[in-house]
Amino acid sequence: MQNPKEYIKNELKEFYSEGEINSLVRLTLEKGIGMSFADILACKFNNLSDAQVLQIEEIVSKLKNFEPIQYILGKTEFFGLTFHVSNSVLIPRPETEELVQWILDLAKNGTVEVLDIGTGSGCIAVVLAKKLFSSKVYAWDISEDALAIAQKNAEINNADVIFFKKNILQESFSDKKFDIIVSNPPYVTESEKSEMEKNVLNFEPHLALFVPDDNSLLFYEKIADFAWSSLNRGGKLFFEINREKGDGVERLLQKKGFVNIERKKDISGNERMIKAEIAH
Fold first, then answer.
1. Which of 85, 101, 156, 167 is deepest in the core (most CB within 10 A)?
2. pTM for the full model?
3. 3-state DSSP call for residue 139?
4. Directed axis angle between helix 50-64 and helix 4-12, to 10°?
């Protein structure tokens, strides 16, 4: 393989856009086979081993099948930290980084008790545990596989997170009170499946993605009820939301009695986050 950059570009040109391919080239060479970015830029490919060539070919083969590069590599970056991922958890996304930053901005350096519901890879809980000094962070998930990955991510990032296997649809209250509850729950309706990219639909866990068309706010309602009884006075509830469902989620929170409800747009201009509070 004389020039792996050109090989990858040629093999993937019918499957991805030019911008996506450039990103995949860098990730394959830098994260996949361990080349330095400087060597990639300088096209220093003379010393590739047979094993590295084979690895490139295997990665490209999987990319042609639209498997996400994060799952192929087994890791991704989130908030400047490395997270292990598999198809048992959703791939952490930039929009969720913005949700985490919003929480950090409002929590500042106060000592708070935080609960992340449906933690998946643990990306939200781990970052909050590292950034909110002296706070206690708890994380729940229904999936044992997801919890195993989240625990691994907490360990490699030196974050103190307390994990529990729990199904929020079966939890009505908690003996412990929290100052912040956050969740990025399933919110894609079954009817939206046809609009989804193959790399999401075919590889990411449906348990963490989909809700019934006739009950699209199922998790928001259940978590809001739980938060109402489990947040301290002045406590805050944060959700990541379906960009089409902001009105519905806000009405739901108003009906439950939450105050200071605020929606926030992500960097792409989509309404992707919402915050509500328990009155003091």
1. 85
2. 0.91
3. strand
4. 20
Q: What is the mean pLDDT of residues 43-60?
A: 91
Nearest to 98 by CA among 220, 184, 208, 19: 184
For the segment 84-125, what is each residue's pLDDT rounded down to a tens digit?
A: 999 999 999 999 999 999 999 998 767 899 999 999 999 999
CA atoms of 151 and 92, how far apart (whole Å)? 15
Kindly give the residue spans of alpha helices, DSSP state H, lying in the chain: 4-12, 18-27, 37-41, 50-64, 69-73, 94-107, 123-131, 144-156, 198-201, 218-230, 246-256
Return the pLDDT at 109. Answer: 67
Dmax (CA) of the chain: 66
pLDDT classification of 213: cutoffs 50, 70, 90: confident
